[in-house]
Design brief:
α1 packs parallel to α4 (128-142) and α3 packs across α5 (223-236). The chain is globular and about 50 Å long. The strands form two sheets. Strands 1, 2, 3, 4, 6, 7, 8, 9, 10, 11 and 12 form an eleven-stranded mixed sheet that branches. A two-stranded antiparallel sheet has the order 5-13. It starts with a strand and ends in a 5-residue tail after the last helix. The chain has one domain: Alpha-Beta Complex (Spore Coat Polysaccharide Biosynthesis Protein SpsA, Chain A). β2, α2 (57-68) and β3 form a beta-alpha-beta unit. 29% of the residues lie in helices and 25% in strands. The protein has helices at 32-43, 57-68, 100-107, 128-142, 223-236, 248-257, 281-293, 301-306, and strands spanning 4-8, 47-52, 73-78, 115-119, 122-123, 147-153, 165-172, 178-190, 193-197, 203-206, 211-219, 263-267, 273-274. With 311 residues, it is an alpha/beta fold.
């Protein structure tokens, strides 16, 4: 069974000020996507697809193929503003991508099988990608139609000194089946833990142990058809055509609540790091340096990829 790693890299990096996916954070100048690629190749993924913008596609193709070499097949797909459901139009004046849910739909133009999906500007820690790949393979063997989400303790995810961050908060049952997924924005530390703003604009108190999404998913192929239907429903009720986003967390949350999809949460036991603001970079560099010193990753990933990864 071929499993593809899909890396979402179509964001504008407006708060960081330069393209986050290219930012050198490893000891030999590695970008964050290289650590995800290393984990995915070792887990048996045979292909990597980058989702980017038409303007950045050639730069991504050159950077990815230049860094990853022949270790794995590399492709790119573009997230296009005019890629909307039949009967709808992309509004004049909009320049922002339609969101992470639409980015995964873009993956579906190139991927027909199961895939692991993650952000280009996050570091997820060793072992979790391999666990997500195993979940997909076990599900295929047993006929389980579930999709899978890596769930991190909120306290084990980056909460930036540069400003509030967004997280999708998970509500699960005793078997870690997802019951609800709610996007909470502008999360910041407070005396009792954390607090953010929910989808209805209300302040919500959060606990350090609350499970949340860092947008690391393992999807079976059925997700693309389900998201297409959700994208049509999104466009039918869009309020601000210039700013509204089709967020993956919100779309999956509604699919779960309406019984259209089943998602199981795999609890991550490591810390995650990510870049949102310039102030985040030093913590990411330090976290990766610790992982390399611990032996989780080679000092020079470029040399590892040049050797064909498994030679």
């Amino acid at each position: 069974m071929l499993v593809t790693l899909a890396i979402l890299a179509a964001g504008r990096s407006s708060r960081f000020g330069r393209p986050k996916p290219f930012e050198p954070v490893g000891p030999s100048g590695e970008a964050l996507f290289e650590y995800a690629a290393y984990d995915a190749i070792r887990a048996g993924c045979g292909r990597i697809v980058f989702v980017t913008t038409p303007e950045q596609e050639s730069a991504f193709r050159a950077r990815a193929r230049g860094r990853l070499g022949t270790a794995v097949g590399v492709d790119t797909v573009t997230q296009r503003l005019d890629d909307v459901p039949p009967g709808f139009r992309s509004p004049a004046g909009r320049d922002a991508p339609w969101g992470t849910g639409h980015a995964v739909l873009s993956v579906g133009r190139s991927v027909r099988g199961p895939c692991v999906v993650l952000n280009a500007d996050d570091f997820y820690g060793p072992q979790i990608i391999a666990r997500m790949v195993r979940r997909l393979r076990d599900a295929r063997t047993t006929g389980d139609p579930s999709h899978f989400l890596a769930g991190y303790r909120l306290a084990d995810t980056p909460v930036s000194n540069g400003g509030g961050v967004n997280r999708a908060i998970c509500e699960v049952d005793a078997s870690l089946q997802l019951d609800r997924l709610e996007e909470v924005r502008d999360i910041r530390p407070v005396e009792a833990g954390f607090a953010g703003t929910d989808e209805n604009g209300r302040r919500r108190a959060l606990k350090p142990e609350d499970l949340c999404s860092m947008n690391l998913w393992a999807f079976q192929p059925s997700i693309f058809e389900k998201l297409r239907g959700a994208f049509e429903r999104f466009h039918a009720r869009v309020k601000d055509p210039l700013l509204d986003e089709f967020l993956l967390s919100s779309a999956i949350g509604r699919l779960v609540e309406t019984g259209r999809a089943r998602v199981r949460v795999a609890a991550a036991e490591q810390r995650a790091f990510g870049i949102t603001f310039p102030e985040d970079r030093d913590a990411v560099v330090s976290g990766i340096a610790t992982a390399v010193a611990r032996g989780d990753y080679p000092t020079d990933l470029g040399a590892w990829f040049e050797r064909g990864a498994c030679n």
